[in-house]
Amino acid sequence: MAYDLDIEQENKEIVRQYRHLLRSAKPILKQGDTRIIKQAFHTALEAHKEMRRKSGEPYIFHPIAVAQICVEEIGLGTTSIVAALLHDVVEDTDTTLEDIERSFGKKVARIIDGLTKISGGFEFGTSQQAENFRKIVFTLSEDVRVILVKLADRLHNMRTMESMPRHKQLKISSETIYMYAPLAHRLGLYSIKTELEDLYLRYTDPETYKEIEEKIRQSEPERKRFIRNFIKPIQEQLKDRYFEFTIKGRTKSIYSIWNKMKKQEVPFEQVYDLFAIRIIINSSPENEKSLSWQVYSIVTDYYMPNPDRLRDWISTPKANGYESLHTTVMGEEGRWVEVQIRTNRMDDIAEKGYAAHWKYKDHKPEDKDAGVGESGLDAWIERVRDLLHHNKQEPTSAEEFVDEFRSNFYDEEIFVFTPKGEMRVLPQGATAIDFAFDIHTQIGLHCLGAKVNHQLVPVTHKLKNGDQVEIITSNKQAPKEAWANKVVTSKARRRIREYLNEGRRHVVAKGQELVERKFQQMDLKWSSATAKKLVVHFGLRDREELLFDIGKGVIPLKSLEVMQSQDFNQQIEDIQANLPNSDELKTQVKELNKSALMIGDNDEVDYSLATCCNPIPGDDVFGYVTLDGGVKVHRTTCPNATEMLSNHGYRVVKAHWREHIRDAFLTTVRLVGTDRKGLVLDIAKVMTEELDINIRGMKVDTKNDLIEDYLTFHVTDTEHLQTVMNALRNISEVISVERSEP
Ligand code: MN
Predict the structure, then answer these.
(1) pTM for the model
(2) Ligand 1 center to 86 CA (angstroms)
(3) Where are the domains of the chain?
(4) In 323-411, which residue ranges form alpha helices assigned H by DSSP?
């Protein structure tokens, strides 16, 4: 009996939620829409009738909820509602895509197809994840609604993960923070992005989450009082001038507070910009800008603005469509307060992003196939298509693709200008080279220098918002090896690599020819064994580098005659015997000093020092729990740190050095100097005699007139290392000394 009663209750609840969905959608429904939504609902209900979610509730609650998010929180229309209701039908039940197409048409079927393709979960760092992400991006470029429904699906899953096993929660959370939250941000879905981030923290670090939540709650009365006093004069002024407006005090999200605490290494109490004041005004389209500036003028009549913190995203909206006027002003008690000024329309777009644009457009998204609209986003999606197009022509691995996509499409943009005042949007960190390639490939390939705001700068100069850039070209100029690391846009990187590879291939081929001829002359056999010996002799990386250097003339052919000498083979053996091999170095690093560090507050934790960044005492470090349960200690400046800290925050533990460590740590420096007689000897002398340091490894390379020397030795801490580096810098003809990886 009780069971029957449950079913009855459940059915009532299903109908109730379905009606709620219809009511929310009502304002956007056209003739006939209700019928097709109803049909989709019944199809889903029938298909999922035997299924329940992990929580025990009937499965149909999930697609209804996803459809509800699509309507209420993203502002999507009928096609998306239908797709949301049916989104799990093809994957989880016997219904086929053909069935869907027959009953609901091509558009819906294509969206469901996209959703089904990307439905496989993906684990961070696996190629399967990367592969899936590539699919997501692909569907994004075909029909943005696939991603929007997918985001709604992900949001509902994140909201209802309570009854999932812990490892699944962590997995889903980490892919959410790695891929979906940035995607939501990029599409301008601000509230969804924020909620996804908060949920991520709630699942991955529940304690911290609760702590911050509690502190926000505790400080609320004080904050409210402050905000009330702050806005009072502004409210009065706005009323006097007949503005229609609302003012909100918005607290930062828990996740972004946590991020601030981490980045600035401060406790909650010292995060000063906990909240922002938002003034939203009613305005006709043509008065938006002038009214916003009038409000700005009123605000700054009462409070002193910080001129460095004025952001005018009304004149130049962000690429994700965000429009608003931001200023930071000095409030009471010497507190800086951020004030955001915007109209109702801008606010709507800021919260709902992409889909909200349509409300303010003449055409509706459902009328257009791909549903692509607003200019900034249009341009962005155009760039996504461009990347996909090139990816098709020259396929890279899925992992590379994800990296490229993330670095090109998730970062914040900067706006720069051509000499004629035309605006160009580039990712943050872009250099003059990126700009040159953005203008035209030929300009990029021949850029010699740049004038930024009329000042001459090198091509590797990093551009800032608002810079005006003029590129100086020369037909003699060509891309350099080093450029590849100085660009951030995929277009520039691709073109530079193409050029370099092409050039490199020629040189290597020429080197091969020269070497074969020379060997014939010497009456010796050119084989991979001899190549190996020469690689050792010249201290190179591999055979290709050898041929390249020969082709370039860096290694003169005459010097190959060394092979004819009697003791050449013996020499090679000697060098090889003395070469510190990298495995040996790694074990030494690992073995060293098991007790120099404290992991968390625990004395007894086993750890090892990461070989990717070789921390030494004095370095800022953190511990990272590896898959086998051990702790690896990395420098916070380690090239892998960002990825670990941002994607696997839950695996990061505190680590700090104990005082008074006597032991020695292996470290490597790279020294560059002019190639003069006796320099290496002088280095060795300074190290052993002056500094009393035992050199554990030395790799010397000479190119042109320069000498490059990698020195590996023991130091006790960063201070000690500084002393050594300073002494080395004082040797005559030494150009630079810097810390390096072994
Ligand atoms: Mn789903």
Answers:
(1) 0.59
(2) 9
(3) 7-116+145-204, 213-360, 497-577, 583-657, 665-740
(4) 344-352, 354-357, 375-393, 398-409
Q: Which of 13, 46, 91, 591 is catalytic?
A: 91
CA of 66 to the centre of ligand 1 (A): 8
The arithmetic mean of pLDDT across residues 151-179, rounded, is: 85
- The rounded Å distance from CA 121 to ligand 1 centre is 11
How far does the centroid of ligand 1 lie from the alpha carbon of residue 98, in Å? Answer: 20
Q: Give φ, ψ of 340 to 5 degrees.
A: -110, 125
Q: Where are the alpha helices (DSSP H) in 273-339?
A: 288-302
Give me ligand 1 centre to Cα 136, in Å: 15
**532-541: pLDDT as tens digits:** 888 877 767 6
150 Cα to the center of ligand 1, angstroms: 8
Catalytic hit among 72, 92, 386, 545: 92
In the residue annotation, 269 being an active-site residue is answered as no
> Does residue 166 contact residue 227 with C-beta atoms inside 8 Å?
no
Of 1.25.40.10, 3.30.70.260, 3.40.50.10490, 3.40.50.720, the CATH number of 665-740 is: 3.30.70.260
The superfamily CATH assigns to domain 7-116+145-204 is: Hypothetical protein af1432 (1.10.3210.10)
CA angle at 412 for the pair 411 and 414, rounded to the nearest 5°: 125
DSSP conformational letter for 414: E
Distance between the two ends of the chain, CA-based, in angstroms? 73
388-445 confidence digits (pLDDT tens)? 777 666 666 666 666 666 666 666 677 788 888 777 878 888 999 999 999 999 999 9
The CA distance from 489 to 185, in Å, is 19
Could you tell me if 686 and 693 are in contact, meaning their C-beta atoms sit under 8 angstroms apart? no
Q: How confident is the model over 77-109, as pLDDT tens digits?
A: 899 999 999 999 888 888 888 999 999 998 899
Catalytic annotation present for 92 = yes
CATH architecture of 213-360: 2-Layer Sandwich (3.30)
